[in-house]
Amino acid sequence: MLPTPPDSPKLSGSPLDHRIGSTIGGYIQLVDVLGIGAYGTVYEARNVVTGAQYAVKALNKSGLDQRQRKFQQREIELHYLASQHDSVVSMHKVIDGPECTFVVLEYCPEGDLFSKITEEGHYVGEDAKVRQVFLQILRAVQSCHAQNIYHRDLKPENILVKDNGFTVKLADFGLATTDAVTADFGCGSIFYMSPECQDTNPHPLACYKSAPNDVWSLGVILVNLTCGRNPWKRAAVEDATFKAFRRDSNFLQTILPVTDDCNAILKRIFDVNPDTRITLPELIAVFERQPRLTQGSKEPLSPMYSPLHTPSTSQDSGYFEGPDSPFDALPAPQYPVARTTYAPSPPVFLPTPPHSRQCTPPPQQHTTQQSQISAFQRPVVAFPPFTTSWNRCGNYFSNFAAPQCPPYWSMAY
Questions:
Q1: Which residues form the signal peptide (predicted)?
Q2: Using CA atoms, how far apart are residues 361 and 143, in angstroms rounded to an integer?
């Protein structure tokens, strides 16, 4: 295992890049800037022969030491392996030049799932659409796990959308690992971390399983899709809402408009014991039976069934309310989709445990044209007081061994 990489280099340069209009790989022309960040620039590009559109990440080499470059290569390798699945953003080509590495990706002009939920109001109350989209996400993650790739940063910001929100694509493998068991505590985005990932004082040999950790994150995404909210701010006993859920496993149904079916699914996903938590194959099987998810769904009632059963742990409802409740509805759009500049904002992360190999968040600053999301676009939504904070968390880097350059790399442009 490599040690935690140092902080990323500072952002420099202008979004009005000198590369605009240039051609890479002989046929891919960079036509506009989609975003810039600590490690490079994201361009809109087109195939000069066919007219096909791409998103191209230009990953800077300048300012990177050898370790950082190895981390960069590893992210590219894991994304390439994962992109064999239809619901993962396709990686078309990698072009390695003297100053930067160009990663040619599938272009998703509609942006990310976060924007689709919070800005455009998709999915909430649309059970059929939620099931279709969530199954795509589940199968993409299952394909990754089958290749021993664990994402570790599943959240709406890292899922791109197409076809008016009916098609989704998993993206951003900056935190992905091939370790089925890991000691990287506090790794990911805090709203989506499992309880076992948040151990702030682990013993020297402490570790947790990567697959159940991804399943937990998927449960939070399911709440985002069905209710437009987060279930809690943090899955820890310090969080009053999560504490109420621990007292009564049916607590979420008292404050969210979810059906009995959906509540049963959420109880299995949010099992604090990763060994008994629902598995991905089980979760996929449940959603293939088309459960009704929300009480206010626009689709007609279907006969109830019991896909899962978990008895309540307490008769105490543990209802939590008041100004600190994280169950306020998500706000109206706070920023336009096109040409917006966002000020730097540090991501929320947990204190580094004494024996942990925690991922280190690099400083971020972003300028985006379209809402094409990538590792370089993390705008921060300014929410009113006492509202669930859906901040776009910064990109972190995992600890992993350095790969060899895979065969799909082109070594010059």
A1: none
A2: 27
Q: Write b or e for each residue in 284-321: b if 16 or more Cβ atoms lie within 10 A of its Cβ, otherwise e.
A: eebbeebbbbbeebeeeeeeeeebbebeeeeeeebebe
- Closest-CA residue to 206 (of 356, 350, 349): 356
Percent of the chain residues topping a pLDDT of 90? 53
278 in Cβ contact with 268 (< 8 Å): yes
Does residue 316 carry a catalytic annotation? no
Residue at token pair 């240039």: 22
Domains belonging to the chain, first-starting first, are: 114-335 (1.10.510.10)
Please list, in sequence order, all residues whose beta carbon lies within 8 angstroms of the beta carbon of residue 238, skipping any fewer than 6 positions away. Answer: none
- What pLDDT band is residue 38 in, cutting at 50, 70 and 90? low
Instruction: Tell me if residue 100 falls in helix, strand or coil.
Output: strand
CA dist 104 → 51, 52, 54, 93, 389 (Å): 14, 12, 6, 5, 32
pLDDT digits (tens, 9 = 90+) for 261-287: 999 999 999 999 999 999 999 999 999
Question: Is 298 labelled a binding residue?
Answer: no
Indicate which residue of 153, 172, 184, 214 is catalytic. Answer: 153
CA distance 149 to 79: 9
C-alpha of 179 from chain center? 18
Write the DSSP string, 303-372: ----S-----S-S------STT-TTSPPPSP-S-SSSEEE---PPP-PPPPTT--PPPPPP--EEESS--
Residue pair 112/371 in contact (Cβ under 8 Å)? The answer is yes
d(C-alpha 310, C-alpha 81), whole Å: 36
